[in-house]
Amino acid sequence: MSIIYVLAPLALLLGLSAVIAFLWAVNKGQFDDMETPANRMLLEDEPIQNETNNKGIDS
Amino acid sequence: MEDLKHTHTSKTALQCSHCGEKVVTEFKNHDDEEHVFCCTGCRAVFNILASKGLEEYYDMKEKGPIFKARGPIKENKENFRYMDSSEFEEEFVQYNSETGTKTVRFYLEGIHCLACLWLLEKLPEFKKGITQSRLEMSDSVLSVTMEKNVFISDVAKEIADLGYPPHPLASKGDLESFEIKENRKDLSRIGVAAFCSMNIMLYAVSIYGGAEGALAHQFAWVTVVLSLPVLFYSAIPFYKSAWSTLKKGTPSIDQPVVLAILVGSLSGVIDIWNGKVDTYFDSLSVLVFLLLFSRYILKKAQKKGLDSSLAGSFFGNGLAHRFNSDTGQFEDIYSRFLKVGDNIKVMPGEIFPADGDITKGQTSADLSLLSGESTPVNMFPGTPVFNGTVNLGNPVEVRVSYVGQDSRLGQILEKIQQDRSEKSPLLSTVDRLAHQFIVAIFIISAFVLGINWYLYDGAIAITRTLSLVIVTCPCALALATPLALSRSLNLAAKAGIIIKTFDVLERVARSKSILFDKTGTITYGTLSIDGWKDLHQGELSSKDIIYSLEKFSNHPIGKSLTQQLGDEGVKELPVSDFIERSGLGVSGTINGISYQIKKIEGKTGSYPTNTIGLYGDEKLLTIVSLKDTPRHNAKRLIQKLKDLGKAAFILSGDSKQNVARIGSAVGIETEKQFSEFSPEDKHELISQMPDVMMVGDGANDAMALQKANVGVAVSGSVEVSLRAADVYLTTPGLEPLTNLVELSNQTLKLIKRNLVISVVYNLLGATLAALGYITPLSAAILMPISSFTVLFTTLYGTKWLRHFVRQSEVTL
Fold first, then answer.
1. Burial class of residue B143, CB neighbours in 10 A (0-12, 13-18, 19+)
2. B759 and B806: one domain?
3. Is B4 domain-assigned?
């Protein structure tokens, strides 16, 4: 059972490093805007076709 | 948004190709039958997108999520030249000397879906000189970086042409950075609580699972150590709010939470010290985590509503033409830089940027913003003009006498701000119940403590009382209520109802009467044909002539005429030599005859106001009289509101005759009609009526909107009333209003249902605890189960809510 004295602190350390990473990300502003980046990644990077398309122009 | 029970009541089920709104009058392009638009604004934006090869916008819009519903778009006519002045650049533009670029931040109106993001971030691809464009969707803020020599006005015009009216923002203010810091702090607290509570659980479970001896004791100490960050860092907001409410003597949900935390952790430490391993640290830290998390979600949902109130702060700011005595010319500046004594010129269609007196020129102005009257008022040299009203006629010169805060509009805004801060927060049902709950828990605890002490001994009595306090901690109240509220706020936003604070829902459900403003709320706010009299029958139909001529007009009367005649299916005739002169109507030549349409003054005969005549070669051919008409579904929706238990009133600044006409048309009884009310009168009336909802749109309603228990600004409202209102309906008509009332009722019902569940649950828990059946293990299991039960019922919602969710997915 003594292995638990190694494993338990190790597990805690692992968790702690995740918290530190999270706090770092929060303070770096990674969570300031939760909406835009989540949607931005869905968009195509392809440039728009710049052919002058005059269809549907009124007057 | 369609009304829930009556879908497709109108004869046409056409949707606008741009905004998706139901089309009342069809607007099309000449050579394109496929696309239909609800207004010229939407058509203009469609055409701009098509010419730039940006049609992908529509695919995107169809596929992507929609965050807020929005109505039709106004066509952009501004050129934003004032953004090029040096004064403007100094305040609003940031330079980067390294890259040789400059950055401006705009607040954009009308950001609502994924396609908006796509379109605006493509700016650098179709507008030369822009190097970067970034949109923050949650705040509707766009930062544009461009090369130094690019005119900011060009960029602003480009954005406005796409249908997003831009308002410049000064570089990041204190308020904004404060908000960011708060948000980061909240997230950090949640993160720490999550980590600690999960790890505590790990050790607590092994204790429950049968760990014994030294190991169990060590594990118990680990849970104590791990709960320290939760107790001394994550839970700080609870201590603060419990303390501040305690000082004020008001009950709050945080008080029992803090009590449970304090008692639980203190006794836990004492227990472990004495060699026992039964502790509550796992339950406590999970509780803190869940509460922090649900509050964070509520805060986020509420912030969406608050953003739209930001728009109000731009009101009355815009273009001004100021006379420069050095150059002898009028130059374009941002109206915020105007000073008392400046001479300015105001062009037709522009908003008066300050209060002042006309020095040169005659015109007519739309004062509806301040007076609520839809009829234009004639103005001469010496007549005072007011900031925010619209010049309809000719260019006039004005000497500025009051600017910004000192103008009449500025004072209304200030009054609103003042009232807002004085408005006492409503003691919500939940708070009242929490209060009763706390008192009940205290009484029962004292009882349990006494009985057990008498029957057994002190140690057993304390343990049982503690389990009672912890098990009955009103988790469901504290957790389920914010979730139910935030979900309803999000649902409302999707349906085009922007609610500023969550307590509005309860106030709506509680209100007994609804006061409606007339112009623009019950009515369309535009003039429509009331009477038509042909004096001489010519070769051509008078309707065709008027339609063909007014088609080119920018005047509101012309626009509403074309809209209505278009409905009747008139022919369009070729017009040459078209001229529009402000105040003198329009003229043009059809088939060699010169026609003119203008206002008839004086001999109007039986027609009261707003009468126009068609002249052919100087001869009067046709007389048309116009009036404002009620919205097509106003009567039905007002009936529906009555069915929901709200009394409907009409409250207007207009004449008694007009109010009576509209009132009877929509089914509001004569004794519930108030006419010829000034903004001050409205304010006075409302302050005497308890539990009242006010629905309005103009600045003349703003004070009333603020004073009312719930102020609702309808779509197309002027920004000043948006600032005063608690709710803003982004889609036109009164349908969203009935949805709002229903949604509020249902949300309250849901909250009450949760309360019942949690009371039953707690009674059961309390009984078991008092009898000594609750051990830390069963407390650890029962607490989350109660939380999940209320969570589930909240998300499952009521029948109406499920229907509403489906409905909004279908119609949007």
1. middle
2. yes
3. no
> Given CB atoms, is A2 within the 8 Å cutoff of chain B?
no
pTM of the complete model:
0.67
Between β-strands B101-108 and B166-169, what pairing exists: parallel, antiparallel or unpaired? antiparallel
Whether B183 has its CB under 8 Å from any CB of chain A: the answer is yes
CB contact, 8 Å: B35 with chain A?
Answer: yes
Give the CATH number, domain containing residue B373.
2.70.150.10
In a domain, B536, yes or no: yes
pLDDT of B4 higher than 60? no
Note the pLDDT tens digit of each residue in B571-602. 778 887 877 665 567 888 888 888 888 777 55
Check residue B312 and give its pLDDT. 46
Residue B195: pLDDT band by 50, 70, 90 thresholds?
very high
For B46, B764, B787, the CA distances from B754, given in Å and listed in that order, are 47, 15, 10
Q: Structural domain of residue B762, as residue ranges?
A: 177-303+430-485+745-811
* Chain A, nearest residue to B192 by Cα: A19
A49 CA to chain B: closest CA distance, Å?
6
Query: At residue B808, does pLDDT exceed 80?
Result: no
Q: Mark whether B656 and B796 lie in a shared domain.
A: no
Please report which helix (H) or strand (E) contains residue B507, including its range.
Answer: helix B503-510
CA B556 to chain centre: 26
Per cent of chain B over pLDDT 70 is: 82
Co-location of B504 and B536 in the same domain: no
CA dist., res. B246 & res. B225, Å (int): 29
* B326 and B393 belong to one structural domain: yes
pLDDT of residue B689: 82
pLDDT of residue A55: 40
Residues B599 and B645 in one domain: no
**In this complex, do B183 and A35 lie within 8 Å of one another by their Cβ atoms?**
no
Question: ipTM, 2 decimals?
Answer: 0.81
- For residue B141, tell me if it sits in a domain: no
- Dist CA B386 CA B700 (whole Å): 13
Do B500 and B516 lie in one domain? The reply is yes
Please tell me the distance in Å from B586's CA to the nearest CA on chain A. 19
Is A20 in CB contact (< 8 Å) with chain B? no
Structurally, chain B folds into a number of domains equal to 4
Nearest to B790 by CA among B470, B479, B437: B479
Give the CATH number for residue B600: 3.40.1110.10
B57 Cβ neighbours under 8 A, 6+ residues apart: B49, B115, B118, B119
pLDDT 10s digits, B641-659:
889 888 888 888 777 877 8
Average pLDDT on A8-17 reads 92
B378 vs A: CB within 8 A: no
Does any domain span residue B509? yes
